[in-house]
Design goal:
Penicillin V Acylase, Chain A, 267 residues, alpha+beta, 6-stranded antiparallel β-sheet, 7-stranded antiparallel β-sheet, 5 helices
């Protein structure tokens, strides 16, 4: 279960603010946030099993993030990896949507969307933010300026941990000088489970130990948990702060990567 807060054109300085936790099995190998080699040239972490990614930025400052939809059954055999969706949008010249808009990409994707296991997808381009899910009707829609929360259900499903982090995120947005990323990382680091098991999201009959672990914003469990926390702060002129903190099964910090890109600059 992942957790993501996003503010689109809802801050006096930043056009885009993202604070996200990626939760995954600890045994699944992953590469740190880095520049991918040509022809991709995106800034992203990398799932070394399926070779996709969950969150990325490209040279044009387009952004994408994907979360799995909470479904306890195993993925359909032969289903394409959901981690390929972000590289398809931001990726190499000639790939689907690489030179187009978020709206155009979703239009191309819709006929194939049911081939994938359940997903949520948020994409930005120069002018817009779009949300799509192959478990939603309509499949995709443009989002107005505002604050959005996403986990492994439909956009803005008010799971308790999302509601808790959202309150802190919105308070950060209201601060007159809310430019420090430290407070956002602190929100993502909240390891407190829901006080009442009844407030935890429906986990479809998972054991109580798992359900309680998953009810915390930062999931701490020896088998599955928060693998990394990522922040994106993007100004209208093109300045970007992108940072990732990585964690081991005990929740200990194992590494951190940070980029601060001036307008027109690319690593």
């Amino acid at each position: 279960m992942c957790l993501l807060m996003l503010a689109w054109q809802a801050h006096p300085r930043y056009r885009l603010v993202v604070a996200a936790n990626r939760d995954e099995y600890h045994e699944r190998p992953a590469g740190a946030l880095a520049m991918w080699p040509p022809p991709m040239e995106i800034l992203a972490g990398r799932d070394l099993q399926a070779l996709g990614t969950w969150l990325a930025l490209d040279r044009e400052r387009r952004f994408g993030v994907v979360t799995n939809f909470r479904e306890l059954q195993r993925p359909r055999p032969g289903a394409p990896s959901r981690g390929e969706l972000i590289p398809r949008y931001l990726g190499a010249p000639g790939s689907a949507g690489s030179a187009g808009s978020a709206a155009g990409f979703f239009a191309e994707l819709e006929p194939q969307a049911q081939e994938y296991s359940g997903f949520n997808l948020l994409l930005t381009d120069e002018h817009s933010l779009w949300y799509g899910s192959n478990r939603a009707d309509p499949f995709a829609r443009r989002l107005p300026p505002g604050v959005y929360g996403l986990s492994n259900e439909l956009l803005d499903t008010p799971w308790p941990k999302l509601t808790r982090v959202r309150a802190g995120f919105e308070a950060w947005l209201r601060e007159p000088h809310s430019s420090s990323p430290a407070a956002l990382f602190a929100l993502l680091a909240d390891r407190t489970p829901s006080a009442d098991d009844a407030e935890a999201p429906d986990t479809g009959g998972l054991p109580r130990e798992w359900a309680r672990a998953l009810s915390a914003p930062f999931v701490l469990h020896p088998g599955y948990g928060t693998r990394c926390s990522t922040l994106v702060l993007q100004e209208p002129g093109g300045w970007v702060y992108l940072a990732e903190r990585r964690f081991d099964p005990a929740g200990e910090l194992t590494g951190e990567t940070e980029f601060q890109l001036k307008p027109g600059e690319w690593p």
